[in-house]
Amino acid sequence: MIKQFLKVSAPRPQGAAGLGKVLLSWFGRLHAVRKRSMTRVAIYGTGRAGRVLAEALKARPNTSVVAFLDDDPELHGATLNGVQVCAPTRLDRLIAARRIDRIIIAMPFMSAVEQGALRRRLAGFGVEVHCMPPLPDMALDGSDRPFSTDDLLGRPVVDDCLPMGAEAYRSRAILITGGGGTIGSELCRQIVQCGPAKLVLLDLSEAALYRIAKDLRPLADTFGVELVPVLGSVLDAPHIANILTRHGVEIVLHAAAYKHVPIVEENARVGLANNALGTAVVARAARAAGVARFVLVSSDKAVRPGSLMGASKRFAELVVQDLAAREGGTVFSIVRFGNVLGSSGSVVPLFQEQIARGGPLTLTDERATRYFMTIPEAARLVLTAGALAEGGEVFVLDMGAPVRIGELARRMIRGAGYSVRDASNPDGELEIRVTGLRPGEKLHEELMVRSGAQLTAHPKIIRVREDHLSELEMAAALRDLRNAMENAADAAMIEVIRRSVRDYVPQGQPNAPSPVALARPYYPGE
What's residue 497's pLDDT? Predict the structure, then answer.
């Protein structure tokens, strides 16, 4: 989640210095283990962590950084901090030519599995290999105090092990839709370590598909997983059916969706088609193909939705609930996320960009609250739900109390080493500016409508059951939605959603609730 700390274009000088001091201390402990007159180092990774490490090592007279390594071919041959960026191919020649003693992997956001695989590969060349410590220990404010993920979440991160479920994916053929997205790509990285036979990645974006396939290839090769990138839309029913049968898909993790509230609000037809009808296409094709398990990635915005995006996700849930209630061999389940830290459109990267520019930080409402989770937590929730599901459940992560966005902004300002400028501190450095809730936004989000949540085998994963439409109602809603889409009738599509998602009232209509008047959040355990 704190990945964006490496991408801040104008980092606070004392913050970079603090990071450099910690890196030097860490490197010094490594160097003390094996004393030598000169250590020639190659740094794997040209991100901020690698650059700060290279700059810090200049202060060590017995250390010389002789090369950067990076997988991006566009960087090969470039010079960074006076050091050439080289391709990590033919490393045997590079190590011999530059007499490299040690390679440091400066990519602290890599998963442990990816780091382990890369470390083993590099160690095969007969050099020492070390990995930079995890970023929560490295992302420092101006006082050199560790700034951790817990500081942003307001709670401890849920443990990073999959409590069960690896067996559910081992030696299986798995399709991940939206595989190039924030959640989809993390799902790919985590599921590879479960040892599937084949991993099929579907994405509408060629660029996103290329990136995730390139990033995953070394990891997939390490674990013996066949990787199949497929370009296409979830609305293309013949294509989806062909993918499922051709690759013998046994498990579908459906993460493809448009998720930005204001954008979907302004692009109703496209958003509804992708989120609602796209889910119906993939879920029905999975059932027809005899897929063993289907997991829909949903959102807390689907609960009593105040936006078209939330309503489209609730409609998608209704589609899956309808199929789960029918006879058949496919186990259908749903996972609801809170806001994912570090994902595209998340408030955290936005605040980080605004801090880097010198402010102000824009806040919709001081009272607004949101549930937050990390990208790894979100992916683990999906994988665990896929293993635990019996059919028709909605799974949510117990994320504690929601985080007040105003307080989150203040934590991030302080964590970056700045002070907040407000009425009580007019000489502060960064201002927080309230802009007002945007169309479709709620003051508070919720995780479930009904009470009676049940714990699962994982103490932090909760199972709930929600009401759904009858088979006839669902069939009529899908028919009407398709007809409205084919006629390019936005208003008709919205009316179908309003009729099906009974607690949704479109913005601007007479009975639309004020965001402030929406119900108090329901907490698990109440």
Answer: 93
**Cβ atoms within 10 Å, residue 170:** 11
- pLDDT score recorded for residue 112: 66
The answer to whether the pTM exceeds 0.70 is no
Burial level of 429, CB count in 10 A (0-12/13-18/19+)?
middle
Q: Within 325-444, where are the H helices?
A: 347-356, 375-388, 405-415
CA distance 156 to 354: 26
- C-alpha 444/C-alpha 521 separation (Å) is 6
Query: Residue 8: its pLDDT value, please?
Result: 33
Tokens encoding 520: 């108090």
For residue 44 the two structure tokens come to 């794997």
**At a CB cut-off of 8 Å and minimum separation 6, what does 122 contact?**
44, 91, 103, 105, 129
Q: Are 458 and 387 in contact (CB under 8 A)?
A: no
Residue type, 122: L
pLDDT tens-digit series, residues 311-341: 999 999 999 999 999 888 899 999 887 776 6
Amino acid at 498: R
> Among 259, 301, 313, 460, which one carries the catalytic annotation?
301
Query: Which string of b and e fits 304-317 if b means at least 16 CB within 10 Å?
Result: bbbbbbbbbbbbbb
| Environment class of 522 (CB within 10 Å of its CB; exposed 0-12, middle 13-18, buried 19+) | middle
- Per DSSP, the three-state class of 333 is strand
Q: How far apart are CA 177 and CA 252, in angstroms?
A: 8
- State the average pLDDT over residues 24-40: 57
Q: Which residue has the tokens 């007969």?
A: 126
Do the Cβ atoms of 435 and 363 come closer than 8 Å? Answer: yes
Number of other residues whose CB lies within 10 A of the CB of residue 258: 19
In sequence order, what are the beta bridge partners of 198? 173, 226
Distance CA 65, CA 99 (A): 11
Distance CA 285, CA 280 (A): 8
In terms of average pLDDT, the best of 22-26, 92-96, 112-116, 420-424 is: 92-96
- Computed on alpha carbons and rounded to an integer, the radius of gyration of the chain in Å comes to 25
Check residue 446 and give its pLDDT.
Answer: 59
Residue pointed to by tokens 């992997």: 105
Angle between helices 375-388 and 182-192 (to 10 degrees): 60
How confident is the model over 170-184, as a mean pLDDT? 93
Q: Would you give the distance in Å from CA 361 to the centre of its chain?
A: 22
Please say whether the beta carbons of 491 and 508 come within 8 A: no
What is the b/e burial string over 203-221, where b = at least 16 CB atoms within 10 angstroms of the residue's CB?
Answer: bbeeebbeebbebbeebbe
- Judge whether 7 counts as a catalytic residue: no
Using pLDDT thresholds of 50, 70 and 90, give the confidence band for residue 496: very high
